[in-house]
Design a protein that fits this description.
Order of helices and strands: HHHHEEEHHHEHH
Organism: Mucilaginibacter aquariorum
InterPro entries: CHP02453, UCP028451
Protein name: DUF2461 domain-containing protein
Pfam families: DUF2461
Number of strands: 4
Radius of gyration: 19 Å
Low-confidence stretches: none
């Protein structure tokens, strides 16, 4: 579970996002990160039993993303993220791709699954899979429980034009125009701080599991 001190650190970081404050509170950051790593360790162990493609040997330290922002090409020069991100890949140890993702941010935490902004080759393969087997995907995303947990799958970032190779009258054009294929469910602070936090997270991941299977089959 996430300790209240971890969320307190993130809250204060928002108000003091500068190197001087961060260095003065480095010990607090280290403890907060260790807390997130501990939760990630528990989630990996439990999630592997639900989705074997999440390796039980994943290094939780590598799954917890850097808090340091890359500001080299950004107009926003704030040096630190105001959250902890945990990437749980399903295709080996490389982060990204078809995965589960845990976002820890006071009042804005969530668990997600799917594939965010696929690379060109994978995007082409996913669209082809949708074109061939749209009913399989629709059976997943139109399930009442799925919609209740994650909302309307089609209401995410789409192309403004029809993707190359497909007809505007294609009955599944709303799915074919998607740029990402993700779902997410909010997590309350009290849920993260509860003794059953890892179980709650894995339960949500299990609901996204069929989507991840569809996407992985598409790019296999």
């Amino acid at each position: 579970m996430i300790e209240s001190q971890t969320l307190d650190f993130l809250k204060e970081l928002v108000e003091n996002n500068n190197r001087e404050w961060f260095q003065a509170n480095k010990e607090r950051y280290d403890k907060a990160r260790a807390n997130v790593i501990e939760l990630a360790t528990n989630v990996i162990t439990k999630l592997h039993k639900v989705d074997p493609s999440v390796s039980a040997d994943l290094d939780p330290k590598k799954c917890v993303m850097r808090i340091y922002r890359d500001i080299r090409f950004s107009k926003n020069k704030i040096p630190y993220k105001n959250n902890f991100g945990v990437s749980l890949p399903t295709l080996g140890s490389k982060l990204g791709g078809v995965e589960y993702y845990l976002h820890i941010q006071p009042g804005k935490s969530f668990i997600a699954g799917g594939y965010w902004m696929p690379e060109a080759e994978h995007l082409k393969a996913i669209r082809q899979e949708i074109d061939y087997n749209a009913n399989d995907l629709k059976k997943i995303i139109d399930d009442k429980e799925f919609v209740k947990l994650f909302g309307e799958f089609r209401k995410q970032d789409q192309l403004k034009t029809t993707p190359k190779g497909y007809d505007v009258d294609n009955e599944n054009i709303d799915l074919l125009k998607l740029k990402s294929f993700i779902v997410s469910h909010p997590l309350k602070d009290k849920e993260l701080m509860g003794a059953g936090a890892a179980d709650e997270i894995v339960t949500m991941c299990s609901k996204a599991y069929p989507l991840n299977i569809f996407l992985k089959n598409a790019i296999a």
